[in-house]
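Researcher: Here's a chain I'd like modeled. Treat it as a single chain, no partners, no ligands.
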Amino acid sequence: MSVTTSVGNALKSFKDKFISGSIAQPATTVFAHLNIDAELTLALFEILTAEAIKLKWQDNYLALDEGLLLAVERVETVVLAEDKCRTCTRIYASHAAYFPQGLSEYQHAMGATESEAILEGLRTWARMDLLVLQDATREQPLNCTVIEMNTSAEAAENSSFRQVILGPVAHLASLPAPKKKEEHPFCPCCLFTESMPAFHDLLQTSDFIGIRLFASRDNEGKLAADCRVNGEDFVPAVEYLKQYAEKWPQRRLEFRKQYVVVRTSKHSVNQAQLVQPGQTQL
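Model: Modeled as a single isolated chain. Structure tokens:
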């Protein structure tokens, strides 16, 4: 059964109750030129509603109360076996004040059916990546660790700050952590700081940037890494991430994955230059 059928049937009464008219109307935003999937965007609507996130349906995209606009694109489904599917979707996001040009990121997931896989990918995005985007569109982030750099040597009233909003890390390891304490225990900063030289030029700009970081080491010690910036492959960070994974304590199969956002702000997140709980300065 396709995800359009299964999700569409499950949400039919929901759609009839909350949304009037066709859900296939063209969006009148930055998403207008994209191939947005209205059924999958509606599925994201229900997932976010279940997470108690306030939002509304607007054309065929979602508008969150704090200003984020979201829409989902179907990318591919690969049937690996009778009860095993691999899916890929792409969520587009925009915010009128912070990144009106929009940015996007892919969601890769596995499931027994196409529907299960896609919904799992959307749920994971809502519980990890969305937290970062929400904090990155607040003057004072609420949930994420922040690395902050003062990028201006001018008077305080003209200062600007380059801020890296670090999302939660998806972490899997086959073996438990070693009893011997690591020289530098793993923390939310590590994936970014270990690969930061690759982002030097991007950090010098004032662009709003979404970065996906991934590193892994398998049972035989083979290293793999992936990095994307605003949804596009970013090769310069790959070797740094592999070098970082090579230093991990031996736990057989292990991977670490994270989404971060880099922004420029006129306001420091460190009030009175004091580091707040959950935040750090570089």
